[in-house]
Automatic annotation (TrEMBL):
Composed of three domains: the N-terminal N domain, which is responsible for interactions with the ribosome, the central G domain, which binds GTP, and the C-terminal M domain, which binds the RNA and the signal sequence of the RNC. Part of the signal recognition particle protein translocation system, which is composed of SRP and FtsY. SRP is a ribonucleoprotein composed of Ffh and a 4.5S RNA molecule. Its main location: membrane. It comes from Bradyrhizobium canariense. It is found in: Cell inner membrane; Cytoplasm. This is Signal recognition particle protein. It is a peripheral membrane protein. It is an enzyme of class 3 (hydrolase). The chain holds residues 13 to 311 of 531 of the full protein.
Amino acid sequence: KTALFDNLSEKLGGILDRLTGRGSLSEADVDAAMREVRRALLEADVSLDVVRSFTERVREQAVGATVVKSVTPGQMVVKIVHDELIATLGSDGQTIDLNAVPPVAIMMVGLQGSGKTTTTAKLARRLTQRDKRKVLMASLDVYRPAAMEQLAVLGRDLDIQTLPIVEGQKPAQIARRALEAGKLGGYDVVLLDTAGRTTLDEEMMSEAAEIKSTANPHEVLLVADSLTGQDAVNLARAFDERVGLTGIVLTRVDGDGRGGAALSMRAVTGKPIKLIGTGEKTDALEDFHPNRIAGRILG
Ligand code: GDP
């Protein structure tokens, strides 16, 4: 339990602990507690719809619940909230699924600036160094030569191959070329770093959908900034509906955001958060642990 988490415990304790000895939680008690829970979630930047459905689920479990002697009513509600957060955030041990005929294509999607290119390099590094896979990276960002160059530089630093840049090709053509090169070169994994834009738009979505139907990726990972807040829901929903996601990578978890985006995106898409980015360097990629984010969200 983190200090932040104890904070909500204290607040709920203040509201509920006068009930000690009464046996079960009434609707009025639970409603008072839910106001604090709602406030904590909104402060953590969880989207409004998700806050509503979440507190409703907690409320149903809490009303009428028998308070056992060993805990205070406040502690009991905190435990219900905590367990429901974990249940919503998903299970530990989510992994990148490489269980397919090689080269396994993994497509990275997301807004510009979300950390997509950095995350592509981080994932390539992990798959190469830890999992001993032969990885090819390809930038499909034909609009920003600097982005293509950025991936090439990261590849050189890490000693991981990037697909040679050929000017004038469309993203789907580059994807096809990457998979052919992957096959010919005996690669296990081909990472496709797609172009992002600064806002959700139709062009980005239709391009991503076209790349997906060409490359038939085994994983489609949404790279999303954990500081995104209320927009996280629209972002995740749009990508999932138009392109179809298999997982989410949350970046900038090292920042001072409270992680509400994790809960929002997971609740809306049902897709697992597979990895988190915790820094600018290419070794700053970690597995996702729901209990850590839960503590942070509870504030
Ligand atoms: P892209 O436009 O989505 O490809 O974004 P980039 O990969 O170029 O990343 C944008 C900026 O965010 C760069 O300065 C990265 O170093 C930084 N960045 C990416 N991931 C993380 C992260 O997990 N933590 C921190 N602190 N910075 C990150």
